[in-house]
Design goal:
Distance between the termini: 62 Å
Number of helices: 7
Shape: globular
Structural class: alpha+beta
Number of domains: 2
Radius of gyration: 21 Å
CATH topology of the largest domain: Diaminopimelate Epimerase, Chain A, domain 1
Strand content: 35-45%
Oligomer: single chain
């Protein structure tokens, strides 16, 4: 009975914790605004999900500062240098990617976003980034917790929010058709265990898109120290005309797999949620994995489920807010340009 009582109280306690955090955040932001009125300072929040980290900003504020400071003709015309400057680990805030939160352009969604990799290249999807966006939006009362939709470049994405440790993102159906992933060569579906000659080795790869392209290699017969060179070589191959995220996966059991990821646009990361989803799909297609698995990444674990009912892939995991502050974009762009 005692255990049951504690379990029942968890959601209520979580709601109180989130409300308390939001109150503190609003009070702190108010004090900062009153004590520091300098124009041109962009507010940001640094967030991470399993060590995959992001700079989060609001589009309206970003566009206002960029336009008034005459840095660019609208923030999107300068999104590449802005993302590179903010994500620089030496001269900026430091992150794997930039999340720009925007009002939804769809009536069926509660908010939208634009996601840009640290090298300035756009990405249509980022599962860890979406969980961070969800936590950010809940804490700032942009959305009501429980369930809401985010407008993305691949369409509406449903998010279920319990607390900062249990955020579920519905990534939709995996794309298995070679033209849509994309993978070069004749049309085929799926792109299953195809031989890829790279760095003097022949690797068997399965390719999947979860809104971005992935190349999954199971139980590679090479030491981990060689993963980086292999991944970088694969990402440059004409086989993947839009580039590709590369996953090296070691199966521990039908419900547990360890994965190392090299992401398109930012290199090796501690976690990649779409990579975890792609690994599950590839593992099921190859007959290695069940449809519900624990994906273990260097930064932690995700629970991933590929439903037989609606063919959707859903992943559940945590997100965290690291810190927040303000940054002078003009100074950041000038100093970053000197590197």
């Amino acid at each position: 009975m005692e255990e049951s009582s504690r379990t029942a109280a968890e959601p209520e306690q979580s709601a109180r914790d989130e409300a308390s955090y939001s109150d503190r955040l609003i009070r702190t932001a108010g004090l900062a605004a009153n004590s520091n009125g300098e124009a041109g300072l962009l507010s940001f929040t640094k967030m991470q999900a399993l060590g995959n980290d992001f700079v989060v900003v609001e589009e309206d504020e970003l566009d206002s500062i960029v336009t008034s400071s005459k840095l660019f003709d609208g923030w999107q015309s300068g999104e590449q240098p802005l993302a590179r400057a903010l994500c620089s680990r030496n001269f900026g805030v430091g992150a794997d990617g930039l999340i720009v939160v925007r009002k939804s352009d769809r009536a069926d969604c509660h908010l939208g976003w634009r996601y840009i990799n640290s090298d300035g290249s756009p990405a249509r999807m980022c599962g860890n980034g979406l969980r961070c966006l969800a936590l950010w939006a809940v804490r700032r009362n942009w959305v009501n917790p429980a369930e809401f939709k985010v407008s993305t470049e691949i369409g509406p994405v449903t998010v279920q929010f319990v607390d900062q440790d249990r955020i579920t993102v519905d990534l939709g159906e995996p794309v298995l058709d070679s033209k849509r992933i994309p993978v070069s060569g004749p049309d085929r579906s799926p792109v299953l265990q195809e031989a890829l000659d790279v760095c003097g080795l022949t690797l068997l790869v399965t390719s999947v898109s979860m809104g971005n392209p992935h190349c999954v290699i199971f139980d590679p017969a090479v030491p981990e120290k060689e993963f980086a060179a292999l991944a970088e070589a694969i990402q440059k191959m004409p086989t993947f005309p839009d580039g590709v995220n590369v996953e090296f996966a070691r199966v521990k059991s039908r419900r547990h797999v360890q994965v190392n990821v090299w992401e398109r646009g930012c290199g090796r990361t501690l976690a990649c949620a779409t990579g975890a989803a792609a690994t599950l799909v590839a593992g099921v297609l190859e007959g290695r994995l069940d449809r519900i698995v624990r994906i273990e990444l260097p930064g932690g674990s995700l629970s991933v489920d590929w439903s037989e009912q609606d063919n959707h892939v859903r992943l559940t995991g945590p997100a965290r807010e690291s810190f927040y502050g303000k940054v002078d974009l003009a100074v950041l762009l000038t100093e970053g340009a000197q590197t």
